[in-house]
Specification:
about 120 residues, alpha/beta, 4 helices
Length: about 120
């Protein structure tokens, strides 16, 4: 999996592409998130529109990132998941804990309206 990130308006934007299987980039992503939280960046949007496949380790990474932000009274949204990933979120009932939005503009609005 490939990823990139930037911080804008106090929001960490991450873009993932390829297969999110956790083992390859998981520890690196978690370290990046921890560093941003230490810098008081408590809102995160992850664009997963170009993620083709997610396995259980990849889901674990997403849940861990979400937990890290929520433990600091922050929030995370998933941006524009593919139909395959949307179905996976529904099957695993993770759609009940992840906020899903359609684009970056909606992500900013959703995150800023969390009151945090």
């Amino acid at each position: 999996m490939n990823y990139n990130y930037h911080v804008e308006e106090g929001v960490l934007f991450m873009t993932f592409s390829g297969d999110l299987i956790g083992e390859n980039n998981g520890p690196e992503l978690l370290e990046l998130v921890s560093q941003q939280i230490e810098n008081n960046i408590l809102l995160c949007a992850i664009d997963i529109s170009n993620v083709r496949y997610i396995n259980s380790s990849g889901i674990g990474v997403l849940i861990t990132v979400l937990t890290k932000f929520r433990n600091k009274n922050g929030e995370l949204v998933l941006v524009n998941p593919s139909e395959h990933v949307k179905k996976l979120l529904i099957i695993t009932k993770l759609n009940a804990i992840f906020h899903v939005v359609d684009n970056e503009k909606e992500a900013i609005s959703e995150l800023k309206n969390t009151g945090k």
